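Exercise 4. Each item below gives a protein and its sequence. For each, produce the structure-token representation.

Item: Histidine phosphotransferase (Bradyrhizobium zhanjiangense).
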Amino acid sequence: MRDSRRPAPCNSRNPPGPHYMSDASSPATVTAPDMLELAALLCSRVCHDLISPVGAIVNGLEVLDDDPKPEDREFALDLIRKSAKTASARLQFCRLAFGAAGSSGAQIDLGDAQTMARGHIEDGKCSITWNLPRLLLPKNRVKLLLNMLVVAQHTIPRGGMLTIDPIGEGETMSFRITATGHNARLPQNISELLSGERGPAADAHAIQPYYTRLLAQACGLTVRLAPEGEAITVTAS
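Answer:
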């Protein structure tokens, strides 16, 4: 007899997670995660971003343990160097975008945010045009900006340019990000997650745009994702 406490197997029509409740006659309804689950899902998101470069470092070390030929040794060392740099950049970005980043009411230098954003996003396929002035902003606004960049990056999976422009000035400044690239598109469900029309699925991918909406609400703003010609814009206003 199957344990009634265990979740039923899922398939492509019934996404995993405790929040999905649907029947044949009505669309799925989703409730928001509580604080503990939100924290767990954000941690899963950070782990998802780090597992690839950390795994590559482990692979490189295993090659070195096998006493390789000189050319294989150099390849392994190069892999370890690049992967360690990537892991460090992603950690610094995640600390600022998802972490506490200082005490309540703290302010963050947009120059530091620019450095973290370039280190995390610019990878040879995607580049950033940063048109923001250098000033201190409340930390939630900076966290919102970095999360908007992640959302915008998802709209250009083949790479391209992310252009960040200010809306307003001073501590009440908000942001507009324009994503341009080959086959720029609106990712499925992200617009609904940002607008509140849809709650988050219980996975690390959906929690990020949902968290972006929470940050916007904390700043008294609304985030919108929309096509604009051949580009996609992400706007907080």
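Check: Strands lie at 21-23, 26-29, 107-109, 126-130, 136-138, 160-167, 174-180, 223-228, 231-236.
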